[in-house]
Amino acid sequence: MTTKNDLEIGFDEFDELVRPAPAVVDFDEVAEASLSRRSFLGGGAAFGATAFVMGSTTLSATSAMAAHHGHEHSRLAFEMVKANTLDAVTVSEGYQAQVVVSWGDPLWSNAPELDMSTGGTGASQEMAFGDHCDGMSFFSHNDKDILVVNNEYTNSKTLLANREGGVPTTADDIRKSKAAHGVSVVEIEQKEGKWSVVKDSMYNRRITADTEMSITGPARGHKLMQTAADPKGEIAKGTWNNCGNGQTPWGTYLTCEENFNGYFSASDADYKISPELGRYGVNIKDRGYKWAMADDRFDLVKNPNEPNRFGYIVEIDPTNPNSMPKKRTALGRFKHENAEVTIAANGHVIVYLGDDERGEFLYRFVSKGKYTAGGDHSELLSEGTLFVAKFNENNTGEWLALTPETTGMTEAEIAIHTRMAASKVGATTMDRPEWVAANPNKVEAYCCLTNNKNRGVKTNAGGDETPAVGPNPRVKNNFGQIVRWKPMNEDHTAQSFNWDLFVMAGNPAVYDDAYAGSKNINQDNMFNSPDGLKFDSKGLLWIQTDGNYSNKDGFAGQGNNQMLVADTETGEIRRFLVGPKECEITGATWSADRKTMFIGVQHPGERGNSHWPAGGDSLPRSSVVAITRNDGAVIG
Ligand code: FEO
Ligand code: CA
Ligand code: CA
Fold this sequence. Notes:
mainly beta, nine-stranded antiparallel sheet, six-stranded mixed sheet, globular, binds MU-OXO-diiron, binds calcium ion
């Protein structure tokens, strides 16, 4: 564990290294704008009171910024867990946490258990649960319980435990790496309170970087989608870097391709990256995966269009293991975080989508067709209109349609080069939009803006400026915030909305300015970098973090990454769970009876300092964890 490996660089840092040289915006100007926003924070200036002079669609007077910390009538009926740096999952008293499935666990009885000394082989990984679990959904089907889980990327030093520094060396290393990515579909069952995998279930399935998928929507067949292996541009192979997810009311799973760029490289050092590929961070050097070593698809010289076939939402039917996943190009191509599906009052399907990169955008898809219970929903996501959000400083905002008229691009080009289309219409550059969550009990939605050290410092990769204003008010924003919006007329298809900040994360133990966070943050519940976000059936909002776990300097007292619960009516936030060392907490779903909550512990020990979950000197393993109450009551 000594050799320096490109894979140790975070995705965001990798993209910083490869992105085109940015223009520097006027720092004084943005700093001034940020300072003027301090009235939003703390002190006696309640955000809801000062910022809103609006009519009937004004956000609730119980805006978070007016939240009180006393909570005699709190809906958060559990004791706050203290921040800690233990190598363990810590849950609130009265709850228990149990590992359901870990990276490398075989899904079939003829596959071997994980070999900890090597990290397994290509063949064993193809029959085992993938690495780095992320977004997930629980499905009930024919009295069976099916868990579908994204496997976002890999810990090279554990996956390739037999290679110096975790550097892939052989073709089988690449086969193993490709098989550790993608999606795992597993039947699970609960016996005597304990959840486990049902080996050999007819539903068990591994979807990997080599699984064939149908390209649907405007980009299908376009010349930018055509490759040597697929001259028609209709069938793509595989999915990877599957981050957040979505679940449709018609029983399908949506997996979201995020940092797809870092897997491509060029065999010719003089290969010129096009501006279009550059906008997405594709570079002549990959992030250390070395897939081009064993598969020409990943060599830009041989297959310059291959990257255009990734960065989409993929729809999967978990009840049919033989079904071909469908890439939904109508939902745009960018570094997709999650896909939050809700049905508007008028029946159109809404999918809210974040593009997680510094200074990129927040999107909304509105289907052309309508959802009707029992109808045919197989192609609802193949046709519709994509919109991008523009936030005004006066707490209003609008959804800007991306159409040939507004962008001068064809529908296929909009689907493939979505970031450029959004830049053309003047969308608001955001502080890395991660998960969006729509309130099941109210017409409103929330989005984690995880952090953005470049806010007010430099432009995004497309040259769009990033002034510290509106929902992104802090220069060099290392803590993140959660923005929420309320569609006009309680209509998710409306063109305009009102917005406010539900919370600004920060550290009130270290700062007394904007970086202390909003009024609903205190020294007991503070955190940084909100990422995963999900409402439960009661309308409580679960917040998961993927942030700085150094527990030092500006992050002192915040401990390991964690999960908190918020009451969006009062603004109250309490920490419910703390993860093991060097992990992030990501992905959330509930059993049909709502008595179990499943979450993901991703990349424990990403820097080599964890042995969770097995302890001793074992390899750390990303795992799905089931949380239940000791009294067996519902948990959300
Ligand atoms: Fe995979 Fe934006 O987190
Ligand atoms: Ca994430
Ligand atoms: Ca993140």
